[in-house]
Amino acid sequence: MATRNRGTLIGVTLDSILSQITPECEIVIVDGASTDSTPRVVQCIAEQHRCVRYFRQETNGGLDQDFDQAIRFAHGTYCWLMPDDDIVLPGAIAKILSTLREGNSVILINVECRDGWTGEVLSSSDLEIDSDKVFPSDQLSELFKISYGLVNYLGSVVISRSLWLQRERLRYYNTEFVHVGVIFQEALPGGAYVIATPLIATRVGNHQWMARSLEVWVRKWPELVRSLPLSEAAKDKALSLANVFVTPAHLSFLRAIGSYSLEIYRRYLLGLNIGWMRRTILVLIAISPRAVLNAILLAYFSCQRGPSHAHARAILRRSQSCFWPWRINVADMSAGMSLTLRPTPSCEAGRHEQSRA
After folding, report:
1. DSSP helix/strand/coil, 98
2. How many other CB atoms are there within 10 angstroms of residue 243's CB atom?
3. 149 by DSSP, 3-state: which?
4. Residues 88, 161 contacting (CB under 8 angstroms)
5. Is 174 left (phi over 0), alpha (psi -120 to 50) or beta?
6. What is each CA distance from 142 to 127, 235, 254, in whole angstroms?
7. What's domain 2-206+334-341's superfamily in CATH?
8. For 289-344, what is each residue's pLDDT tens digit?
C-alpha cells in the first residue's frame, strides 16, 4: 500500500487481507509521511504478522510515486495495487492466486461499492462483461473500452512486477493514474484476464481525492487518455467520464458535499468552450449555499431507488459529518498499497483485534 493519514481506516483494510492471506503473499506498505496514528496502527500489525513490511518516508511523494516505490520494494512476482481504505472480499486472494497461474501480464478485478459507514452494498462497477474474459496482447483498445470505468480504480489491478518495472512510469507521475499509463502504454505481452466477480469493496465516502475531483477528472484523466496509443473509439468512450463531471447536476452534487466552489470553477472550468447561459448556471451553482443543496439533494435521493441513488445518499450523508475526510485538509492525498504475491516466510493468518489497531 501507499498510504497517508489513514489511521482510522487502514486497520480494517489490513484485517480483511490478513484473514485470508497465504504464505505465498506479502504486504508492502509505503507511508507518505503520515502525521496521524497510521504509523502506530501499521507497526502494531506488522509486529504481529511477519508478512507485513512497512516503510515510512520522510516526505509525501504522492499517489503515483508512492505506489511505484511500493512495487520496487516488493519481492513478489505479481503486485495487487491495494487502496488503504477498502475491503478485500472473502476468497479474493485464493481466486487471484489461482488465476495467476495462467501467466497473464495483468488481471483486472471487478469492484463493488459499499456505504463507508453501514457496509451496505450499493453497486458493482461498470464492467461491461458478465463473465471472466481473456484479452490477448493485440486487444489493448478492446480491453480499455470494456474496463475504462473500472481500471481507473487502483484496487482493480494485479500486474506483473517485472512488466511494471520495465515500463515507463515517470511520465505518469502526478496524473493520479500511473497504473493506467503503465498498463496501456503498449501491448501487454501476456495479455489480460478480467474477473467479472467483485473481489474488493470500495468504502464510499472515504476518498480523499474527492475534494480535487474536478482537477482529476476534467484535467488529468483526459490528458492521460489522449496520450495513450489506443483507438479513437476507446479514447472517446473513456473521455465521457470527464463530460459527466461538468454537467449542472453533477456540479450541484459536488457543491453539496463541499467539493465545488467559485475558486474551483475559475481554476478548472473557466476556460471551457461553453455558452454564456451554461456558464452562468455553473457560476450560480458555485455560489449556492452548500447546506441548502445538501438537504435538497439528500431529500431527492432518499425518495429514489437504485444503486446510483444509494451511492449518492451515502456520500451526502457522510459529507454532513465532522469526520468528512477532506474537511481536515482538502489538499491531502492518500497514496496506495501494494499486496505482493510470492512465497514468503510464514505469516500468521487470522484477524488482528481491531481494538489493538
Report:
1. helix
2. 12
3. helix
4. no
5. left
6. 13, 11, 32
7. Spore Coat Polysaccharide Biosynthesis Protein SpsA; Chain A (3.90.550.10)
8. 999 999 999 999 888 887 777 778 878 887 765 444 433 332 332 334 455 554 33
